[in-house]
């Protein structure tokens, strides 16, 4: 009787050790997944910084294309139409460069 109980306890102990190792491996896999996700988010933030710079540039280009397509007004009016886009570009570019430092 005593031998059977020890054998059952030994089997249970081995099962618990195997389960513990399995949980440890699952934890490592989840940790690696979280690290990869964090790396993706860091890369996405960098792209977001570029997008904040490229967005105003695209706005300026669209403004210039529309002004050529539908010309109305003189040179001063065209220059003033692009000024807000240039100001946004300057602000986002200076913020982007400050993040790189």
Task: Tell me what you see in this structure.
- By secondary structure, the protein is mostly helical.
- It has one domain (2-100).
- Helix content is 93%, strand content 0%.
- The chain is built from two helices and no strands.
- The protein has helices at 2-69, 75-100.
Run of helices and strands: HH
Number of separate helices: 2
Q: Classify the secondary structure makeup into a structural class.
A: mainly alpha
- The counted number of beta strands is 0
Give the secondary structure arrangement, pairings included.
Elements: H1 2-69, H2 75-100
Structure, briefly:
By secondary structure, this protein is mostly helical. It has two helices and no strands. It has one domain (about 1-100).
